[in-house]
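Data availability (excerpt). The following record was deposited with the supplementary files.
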Amino acid sequence: MNLKLKVWRQQNSNSKGKMVTYNISDISPDMSFLEMMDVLNNELIGKDQDPIAFDHDCREGICGMCSMFINGEAHGPDRLVTTCQLHMRKFKNGQTITIEPFRANAFPVIKDLVVDRSSFDRIQQAGGFISVNTSGNTQDANSIPIEKNDADRAFDAATCIGCGACVASCKNASAMLFVSAKVSQYSLLPQGKVEATDRVLNMVNQMDEEGFGNCTNTGACEVECPKGISIENIARMNREMLKASLK
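Predicted structure:
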């Protein structure tokens, strides 16, 4: 495959970025998108040019690091995959591919396609945990009966990898799907109910402080989420928020 790539290049968060065009050839349809980017970077390095900075880690769709906005879609034109799971067979020979970082005020660009998503870390630190009694009298979690439906829904919410596709896909750059997934995975389980009130209040407040926008109610976040996190979690978080605000 021969492709034309239009890639966002930006030296740092304080510099002005621009789109730079690269032509690349002999790309196998069986390559992953990141492998194609590796080929391009090897060519740039061979020409003594600065390689394109992009995030990656596990390359197995687990870590959520490989966040790219490809042809106007978070993680590209496929569904329920991260960028590292996207294969070049999803594109056509001779196609022009536009590659940008996830854009949100709360995700400032570090360099090129790398953005700072530490705002997500601060939201989780605000309440994405449970306090555990470690005095020696702790109850085995496996001994606590949980309704299968609740366990399944909690597990579905817990599959969120914090990649930020929901934010990148939302025209308001809302983090509601991410926060609601983190709230839901605890609110559905007995271990998480003890701190449920403080958790939802603290996490939503931190989300607002980070500068994320309001939910648009369009559902774009669910469509682009690589793990298929349901917007039902947003409704659940709103209910938890209402209950907490009335206490």
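Summary of structural features: The beta strands are 3-9, 18-24, 69-70, 73-74, 96-100, 109-111, 114-115.
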